[in-house]
Amino acid sequence: MIRLCVWLLTAGWMISAAFAGNFKVFYPATHTGWVLETPSGKVYVIDPGIADEFYDTAPKHGTGIGTYLKQRGIKTVEAVVISHPHSDHFAAAAQLFRDFRVRELIDTGFNPRTNKFGGYNAEFWKAFEKSGAKHRVGLRAGATLAWDPELTVKVLGPKTPFWTYAESGKDAERYYNQNSLVLWVRHGSVSYLFTGDITQPAQNFLRTHYPAEIKDTAILGIPHHGKYYLQEDFARLVGSAHPAVRIGIASLSHTKKGPKADRVPVWRRDGLTIFTGDNHNDITVTSNGGNALTLETSKPSGAKTFQVIPVTASGR
Ligand SMILES: [Zn+2]
Asked: What domains sit in the chain, N to C, each tagged with a CATH number?
């Protein structure tokens, strides 16, 4: 009996030791979305992206989110988070619901029904209902998520009440984009910000309501994939607590639409080091629970390590 207890304790220690430490974030080569693998081995997907060849086995486009999950041998997705119901963010969720055991759908509840400007389609709801996943709806700034004992997960946007059509410049596309769910995740000293498609007023909201989290952000999912929307005082605040690590991740398929659309040079000018997905390149960021992170790209294949060393009040 004593032996068995010792064995169980040892096995328990081995399991926790095997998982302790790493948090992995994957950005696909196919337009948009994120896969988060937590230190305890749970998997979350934010914005599975465009459907079909962008999602699954896409030699033409590089590794999509569906392909990545299957390559990793993942069977269960704890939650699918949809930042806002534009099809380039949610459409592949229907396939995801069919391919994996998905426990939960998380969103803001903003304008969910189909109309000519956005909203989920019938296929999405059909696949969701068939999946048996729960729906956690109505997330707004101020909420927290208990995803993993080693992670702090905060919802920083959208605000309550939602941004109005008038506050969105009476532009239907911006109205949806501005109300994107914004998630901030901290692991050890490394923090990540996932912004969906937030526009300038929503970036300004983050700057004024959550300055500590924005200064601390090491890895920024650049809003709207790097296209059009940029609030420069927000950009300059991102990661300013540790100037040697200020990384932004954007998408080439958006920014290559010409200099008028492309804000990546400005994000860069404001001090961020930019890595871009697409063009067969996918990006993986791994943090170890301390102050180190490794960023790997598939094309060109390579890894870079960074150390988050906060600026002290007395120094520099
Ligand atoms: Zn959008």
From this structure: 10-300 (3.60.15.10)
